[in-house]
UniProtKB/TrEMBL annotation:
Protein name: Oligosaccharide repeat unit polymerase
Keywords (A to Z) from UniProt: Membrane, Transmembrane, Transmembrane helix
Record flagged with keyword Transmembrane: yes
Domain of life: Bacteria
Residues that span the membrane, as ranges: 20-42, 62-85, 97-115, 121-151, 163-182, 298-322, 334-353, 359-376
Length: 384
């Protein structure tokens, strides 16, 4: 007795009730432990904090955003869905600088930290950031901005909050298919060389209603961690034997660990991620990924996969502490909470490492600005 799996599985794979039930329990346990136990516990730790006037941080954020535009337009770096197509020897310096700065995440953190600001410079950066997300196909960041808007609205209008959440959530689901179409058009534009409008026209096809319905169903099925875990459990033996993944392979997929590993004896040839291997196992098509959730690593890597789960928990602790250090007001914690939620649902640990890296770069910028501001008065006094 069972059913069929939707989403990436296209209703072509059956699943037993027992595996689906266990998958649901694993997901619920992960949610409860992470968001109700770990997050409040680490968040209660008192640490020193640093803060900076928004105008002093706005200009560095604007420079980083400008670099993001430059990288996406001229080198296709940071454009979602291109993968290795943007990785060539002609843009190594720009690619390495982008990997270090993480413009899409760093500027998003800035927007969250100063979400109570109503200044023109802040609005300018938000507008440019939305444009950058559209150019680079970063639809996930646009959804995160949507969550921030709901959060800010709830603080201003408490009485209508529940109604507004329901309305805006429904509106977001209704509009999201068009966002996905725009993202796919951006990718098609870079890959095939066609114009953006030709790509949109090709994706829409002759029947707009059918296209919208297809993308709407895909939008609802994006969060399919239960189906994926169920599939991993039922096909664990064949997946584990066919992939032969080693825990070092996981760390080598991140550019930081790969750089360190290439200079030591602890290195192996780069292999595909478990997400891409699962995707290929589903329909024998390369070039796409299917998320596996956090517990999926235990099925992909065997017993050593639990080391990756423990490593992920450590990353969550670091992210929460960094958020409290950078923004004592607590607004950045909302972005960290959302990032942890994404990590639980999708299992994109490298993306979460990039988030922590962006927070570290942001903290370094703020610390340097503090030092610079403290030196300026003394210089003026010496001149007098």
């Amino acid at each position: 007795m069972g059913g069929v799996l939707g989403g990436d599985f296209g209703y072509e794979y059956s699943a037993s009730i027992s595996s689906i039930f266990v998958a649901i329990l694993l997901v619920l346990f992960t949610f409860f432990f992470t968001l109700k136990v770990l997050y409040p516990l680490i968040n209660s730790i008192k640490i020193p904090s640093i803060s900076l006037d928004y105008q002093k941080l706005s200009y560095p954020a604007l420079l980083v955003l400008a670099f993001g535009f430059y990288s996406a337009i001229f080198y296709q770096i940071g454009v979602a869905g291109l993968g290795d197509l943007a990785n060539n020897n002609e843009n190594q310096s720009a690619r390495q600088l982008y990997a270090l700065l993480q413009p899409a995440v760093l500027v998003l953190a800035y927007i969250f930290i100063y979400s109570n600001i109503r200044g023109p410079l802040y609005y300018l950066i938000v507008a440019f950031y939305v444009a950058y997300c559209l150019i680079a196909g970063q639809t996930g960041q646009l959804l995160t901005l949507f969550v921030l808007y709901i959060y800010c609205s709830s603080n201003r209008e408490q009485l209508s909050f529940k109604l507004k959440v329901i309305f805006l959530t429904a509106l977001g689901l209704a509009v999201y298919p068009f966002v996905r179409i725009l993202k796919n058009a951006v990718i098609m534009q870079y890959v095939s060389g066609t114009s953006f409008f030709e790509s949109v026209k090709s994706l829409l096809g002759s029947n707009l209603l059918n296209t919208y319905h297809t993308y709407l169903i895909q939008s609802f099925e994006r969060f399919q961690v239960v189906a994926n875990l169920s599939y991993l459990m039922e096909n664990f033996r064949s997946l584990y034997v066919s992939t032969e993944l080693h825990v070092i392979d996981f760390f080598n997929t991140n550019w930081i660990f790969n750089t360190i590993g290439s200079r030591t004896i602890v290195t192996r040839d780069l292999v595909d991620s478990p997400q891409s291997m699962l995707a290929f196992h589903i329909n024998n098509v390369e070039g796409w990924n299917s998320h596996i959730g956090l517990f999926g690593y235990a099925f992909a890597y065997g017993v050593s996969g639990f080391l990756i789960v423990i490593f992920s928990i450590l990353l969550m602790v670091i992210a929460i502490l960094l958020s409290n250090f950078i923004d004592p007001s607590g607004k950045l914690r909302l972005l960290t909470w959302i990032s942890i939620l994404k990590l639980i649902c999708f299992g994109w640990i490298n993306a979460f490492i990039n988030y922590i890296q962006a927070l570290l770069i942001l903290a370094i910028i703020m610390f340097c600005m503090h030092i610079l501001m403290s030196l300026l008065p003394s210089k003026q006094a010496d001149t007098a």
